[in-house]
Design goal:
Elements lengths: L2 E6 L7 E5 L4 E5 L5 E6 L5 E10 L2 E11 L8 E2 L11 E5 L7 E5 L4 E5 L5 E6 L6 E10 L2 E2 L3 E6 L14 E4 L6 E8 L3 E9 L4 E9 L2 E8 L6 E9 L2 E9 L2
Antiparallel strand pairs: 1-4, 2-5, 3-4, 5-6, 7-8, 8-11, 9-12, 10-11, 12-13, 12-14, 15-16, 16-19, 17-18, 17-20, 20-21
Amino acid sequence: MWTYKNYSVVNISGINYSWTVPIGATINSGQGSNSVSVTFNNSFISGDIFVSATSLCGGAVNSFKTLKGKPTSPSTITGPANPCFNGQNILYSCSASTGASSYTWTIPAGASIVSGQGTNSILLNFNGTIGNVLALKVKAVNSCGTSANRTLNVTLINCPRLLNEESNHFFLYPNPTRDELNVSWTSLKDEKIQLSCIDILGQTIFQKEIEAKEGKNEFKLNTSLFSDGVYFLQISEDGKSQSRKFVVNH
């Protein structure tokens, strides 16, 4: 988008006027006179417009005015691309934009802002449907206008209750994995357990009942036919279920 503005100084007979404009601006007409028409393109952020008045009777007289344009668009939005469908206090932030005085976030249905509107960092709550793709947008604002939106598409996923990462009773490796995932856990007694693999849509794509022995147990999960993406390996015993997240990347 191009913006046209006119600038002028008092016209004095016998004076020659020389104008200089900042980067992102172009003089359309009026050079040499007391009034110029200037075009600003999308690259203009801020700068000074100068005018020098000269005559045959004396030295030059200079004057300038500082100009500001609308801010640049944020270059990135950072935050989880796969938040839980019911996640709470999820942090997203955008890169600082040159010339911005505030930021306006646009959130889709299935999300609500906890805090941070007007800043470059917000907290969101999600209450959406598993598998939905939501477009999170932000634009920079100042008194001269607004930038274009920056967009991050997020996919809401199912998040089973995750085992404390500090626990030494349940391991998945390598993670990320390609064709095979090693599952290692410790049972406190001989018992039947159920291993389940759940995708990000909450669908169970693998399930197996295992006769676990007291002590360390291991199982190898074939992931060669899994699509690349995020999964959860769930172990259920004595009516309790806990999970770890793993990634398949062929």
